[in-house]
Design a protein that fits this description.
This protein is α/β, with parallel strands linked by helices and 156 residues long. The chain has helices spanning 15-29, 67-75, 78-81, 97-103, 105-109, 131-155, and strands spanning 2-7, 33-38, 53-61, 64-65, 86-92, 116-123. Strands 1, 2, 3, 4, 5 and 6 form a six-stranded mixed beta sheet that branches.
């Protein structure tokens, strides 16, 4: 099973970079083949068809999900490539979780109609390096992915 983490951040080696690597490690620990790619707003995302699972996330800067990821969802073929695809979302931000769920998560979700969102998580600054919290997020994704595979098997 192949997974890709699509992400964006203004900081090289910042909290999102480290979180992406930790999510990748945890997924690899479950036997998944994991790749990562930094989003560009103007890019061709046809390569997404190779992957069974797309994990996607970015920080919030000035009340907006980081621009290259949001731009890719709005301007490129990314959202159409994600139709009927298993996805999981994450955000890194300083706002309290209820506010982030209300204000920031919908910025991604409104451009993801037709994809199967298996899990979503807002990571507070301290949680971006908390392996227990990251492990729980990955466990949820994996459990939901297994359920989806089972449902797909029954539909065949
Ligand atoms: C310039 C700047 C603007 C930010 N604006 C917001 C914001 O509007 N809302 C929020 O919840 N967090 C905001 N944050 C917090 C970041 O989302 C958070 O620190 C994130 O983990 C940064 O990720 P990075 O280390 O990959 O850049 C901001 C941080 C910076 C540096």
């Amino acid at each position: 099973m192949k997974a890709i983490i699509l992400y964006d951040s203004r900081s090289e080696g910042g909290s999102t970079d480290r979180l992406v690597d930790a999510i990748g490690q945890k997924l690899a620990g479950k036997g998944m083949d994991v790749e990562k790619a930094r989003c560009r707003a103007q890019a061709d995302y046809s390569f997404i068809s190779e992957f069974d699972l797309v994990i996607m996330g970015a920080p919030v800067y000035y009340l907006m999900v980081s621009s290259q990821l949001l731009g890719a969802l709005i301007q490129s073929n990314l959202s159409s490539m994600l139709k009927n695809k298993n996805t999981a979302l994450f955000l890194t931000c300083g706002s309290p979780q209820p506010m982030a769920e209300l204000l920031y998560m919908p910025q991604m979700k409104m451009n993801l109609q037709g994809s199967r969102i298996l899990a979503e998580k807002v990571f507070a600054p301290a949680e971006t390096s908390d392996m227990e919290v990251i492990g729980e997020y990955v466990d949820t994704i994996y459990a939901e992915w297994l359920k989806e595979e089972e449902r797909r098997g029954k539909r065949k």
